[in-house]
Write a sequence for this structure.
């Protein structure tokens, strides 16, 4: 019965085994949270997804505004080309 408790449930409190570091009956020194580093995964996750404002270098000169490629401008140019082709023929 005791062997089953230990093998299946890893319960050591029925043997009277205590943690040498903190004196707890729920774990041994090997699993003690005081002597082993345990990460708070949620806190680390939230720290990495938090947006931080970027510092931009204002001395860098950007190119001029992007040219518009709206469909209306393209259609006007296509009509101009068609008119030129019709005049040539």
């Amino acid at each position: 019965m005791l062997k089953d408790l230990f093998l299946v449930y890893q319960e050591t409190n029925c043997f009277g085994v205590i943690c040498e570091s903190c004196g707890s009956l729920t774990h041994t020194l090997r699993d003690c949270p005081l002597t082993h580093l345990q990460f708070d995964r949620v806190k680390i996750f939230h720290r990495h997804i938090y947006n931080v404002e970027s510092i931009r270098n204002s001395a860098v000169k950007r190119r001029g505004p992007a040219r518009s490629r709206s469909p209306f401008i393209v259609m006007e140019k296509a009509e101009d080309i068609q008119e030129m082709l019709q005049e040539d023929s």
Observations:
- The helical segments are 2-9, 41-49, 71-88.
